[in-house]
């Protein structure tokens, strides 16, 4: 019987060497230690042996059992490591290897649709003699509000929910109209410029609202500028962008920095004016608030309102993009999804 246990030990050691994977190992373990396994069948044959024999062989069989368990565990660790290494070798990539296609972010993906339209508008206004200005995202209270005829106590401050810095003097600009304020400070009339950029409002998002979105400001200051000039530039802009007639409506709008002020809405091109989540079932999308620059704003910018006047507008770029491409939710524009961006024609 002792010999049988000795033979079983050798048989196990030999079988263990030939095991190639984890399922073979599990089977081997069952074959030796399972209920109907080889060790148990030896032990069963001991039932009629004397107590001394049972005692001595019982000890030996326990030792064998422990040796089998230890062997299985060691082999299992070895097999697991080999599997991991094999997987790594199969998926190995030389990260320093230079690919045959170089993607500079434009060939495969293209410009973001907001950039495409922004550049088109910049070209339209450059061709009409406008300058392109930039301004800081972090603004001061003066340029975002005060210089635009919105003093500290003015209720219009609540029209735009502001992200303030802890000093309560600086903020993330809520509109590109601050570019007007800064542009006037460094120019003598006549002048005309546009100022595109990102703006920020502490607002809940929905199909047509984002907390960070894009506007494009425009301003023209000179002598005898009229609402007719303003409407001419707005119409030129829209017909160039859409390359077709679009239905617009002009209605009175209140902004402290213009007088009179207007809201130029475009008929919703997502639903054709029938009503949808983008136009909030109204059939119209607020796109282009505008108006004649308020004399107080001209004064703050160092321009004499007795001699000069002008118009200003603040285009909602994201909504314009949505209308042109038929995008039914503004959040697609900020999703960071490259497959979404790659649908749009590069500039
Ligand atoms: C303004 O921001 C004014 N500064 C515009 C202006 C400039 C008026 C010059 C007169 C003269 P308003 O808050 O309405 O106005 O925003 C302008 C446009 O930005 C809106 O018509 C809309 O197209 C877009 N817009 C406003 N809020 C959001 C938002 N949360 N998400 C996306 N687009 C928005």
How would you describe what is shown here?
There is one protein chain. The protein is built from eleven helices and nine strands. It is α+β, with helices and mostly antiparallel strands. The protein has two domains: 90 residues; 229 residues, BirA Bifunctional Protein, domain 2. Strand 6 and strand 7 form a beta hairpin. Helix 1 packs parallel to helix 4, helix 2 runs antiparallel to helix 4 and helix 5 packs across helix 10. It is rod-shaped. The N and C termini lie far apart (87 Å). It binds adenosine-5'-[phenylalaninyl-phosphate]. Adenosine-5'-[phenylalaninyl-phosphate] binds next to strand 5, strand 7, strand 8, strand 9 and helix 10.
What is the architecture of the largest domain at the second tier of CATH? 2-Layer Sandwich
* Rg result: 38 Å
Count of runs of 4 or more consecutive helical residues? 11
Neighbour order of strands in the largest sheet: 1-4-5-9-8-7-6
Order of helices and strands: HHHHHEEHEHEEHEEEHEHH
Task: Give the termini distance in whole angstroms.
Answer: 87 Å
Number of strands: 9
Shape: rod-shaped
Structural class based on helices, strands and sheet pairing: alpha+beta
Query: CATH class of the largest domain, anyone?
Result: Alpha Beta
Distinct small-molecule ligands in the complex: adenosine-5'-[phenylalaninyl-phosphate]
Strand content: 15-25%
The percentage helix is 40-55%
Regions with little confidence, pLDDT below 50 for 5+ residues: none
Average predicted confidence as pLDDT: 90
The overall number of domains is 2
Largest sheet: 7 strands, mixed
